């Protein structure tokens, strides 16, 4: 390893000595005079702090409740509004502050425009003998001319909006007719029945309605029901296509049904045994 050299002190590390050009004598005496935070040599000669002196002076006021309020001194406005010989007061000068991210050139241009505006106002006020506050302010504005194509587009848009509004009004009226106001406590047992026929409905009775047509299956069922002895009982008790109980059937039909049931049970048991043997 190489030898480590001692770090050299830069200019920052140099000590600045106290030098008084008008002093003649030893330097130690100057150092003794400039010492701070030293203990007092005599306790009686110690000065009273300013805050303690303030409390001692205002002790009686604090007991009463009165407290001295220190008001901050406001900066005096050195601007003179009225100078001897003037007829009207001067306007206060505007304060220009450079905005954030505003370039120096833009800031100077803004200041120049404001000064030119103030100078023009003063010239006009002196010429006409009246106080002109702001030249730019006013109710009159130059109207921008609209092109023909723009006018046609606006007209078409206006007509379209008017038509949409008319259609919306018609839809709202139709929904009002469809609504049915039901009072509180009103009970409805069935849906409404349509008594009136459509305008183009055929009034001739040669065209049968659904449920009243003479179908082939319907004729066969009616013929079978008429041939059975208990047809009068069944017709009164049940409708066409409805199942009947075993006790209401005849003895012959009961025997046929029992035989078919037994046959189905035997077939099911045979299939079950075959599946068990295969597995």
Automatic annotation (TrEMBL):
**Which InterPro entries does this chain map to?**
CCDC137
Q: Among the entry's GO cellular component annotations, what is one?
A: nucleus
Query: TM spans, by residue?
Result: none
Q: Where is the composition biased (Low complexity)?
A: 226-235
Q: Where is the composition biased (Basic and acidic residues)?
A: 25-48
State where composition is biased (Basic residues). Answer: 1-16, 141-165
**Residue ranges of the region described as Disordered:** 1-48, 67-94, 131-174, 189-208, 226-255
This protein's name: Coiled-coil domain-containing protein 137
What organism is recorded for this protein? Mytilus coruscus
